Amino acid sequence: MQKLSVKEIVKKINNEELFEAVSEDYAFTIKIDSYVYYACAAIHDGHQFRKELWDNCIHTEYERWYEEDPCTKDMVKTHPIVIAGCDSRFEYDLNRPPEEAVFETAWGKQLWKNPLVEEMKARSLQKHTSFFQVVEALIGKLEDKFGICVVYDMHSYNWRRWDREVPTWNLGTSNIDNDRFGNDVELWRQSLSEIKFPNGIQSTSKINDTFFGNGYFLKFITKNFKNTLVLATEIAKVYCHEYDQIIYPEVVATVESELKIRLPEHASLFYQKQSN
Questions:
Q1: pLDDT of 175-218, one tens digit each?
Q2: What is 2-274's CATH number, 3.10.450.330, 3.100.10.20, 3.40.50.620, 3.40.630.40?
Q3: Long-range contacts: 190-194, Cβ < 8 Å, 24+?
Q4: What is residue 87's DSSP assignment?
Q5: pLDDT digits (tens, 9 = 90+) for 83-126
Q6: Where are the domains of the chain?
Q7: Which residue of 19, 72, 76, 93 shows the fewest CB atoms closer than 10 Å?
């Protein structure tokens, strides 16, 4: 893996080079093993948190971990194109627009003992800007090359905090063209529901049951690229104990091996249908 500037990453994408890199500020990673009509993203996978922010942060390390999406990069790491965040969403949230990306409060609790100085905010927001410069270059290249593209936007959510039964998988579709892509969404929902988990975990999947696909990452791509479907795909945190901060590696491995087959199968059906 190389360390590259955003300018160098964008140049490699424009030239259709194959590479694996971390951004020079260590904010995100990108891997392109081949140029295909689908990409995977794990924008909340990261847990890094700048040391200069530690003493001023009220939330504990565990509270930050609880709201992040650990292991979502591992679930899609084998696919040809993967982009993933390295930093915690508590530093800046890639699923919020720039004006909301640096939190003042987080999940009902004040985040900072003292308000962040503008210099610190700017440092975080520059990482946000850089990430979306690369996303824009990547999706632009895939649309130019294939005419159509699908992005699997992987997230997780804390199912134990709900006071009702919630699905193992939730697809958020409120900001996509459902008239055009509704059948593709349903095929993805159905495929996810067929996954066989270990440990007696059920695999249920629903659309807009817990979350609705309101994230900035999806909205940014959908606004700027008319032929790209973003599938906001949330897995309940059945792959960890969200209160004890324990990861279940056998469950993560199951998801990864299932998606290794199901995800390209779905992408292929999407491409065959939508490119005609």
A1: 999 999 999 999 999 999 999 999 899 999 999 999 999 999 99
A2: 3.40.630.40
A3: 191/262, 191/265, 191/266, 192/168, 192/233, 192/262, 193/169, 194/262
A4: B
A5: 999 999 999 999 999 999 998 888 888 899 999 989 999 999 99
A6: 2-274
A7: 19
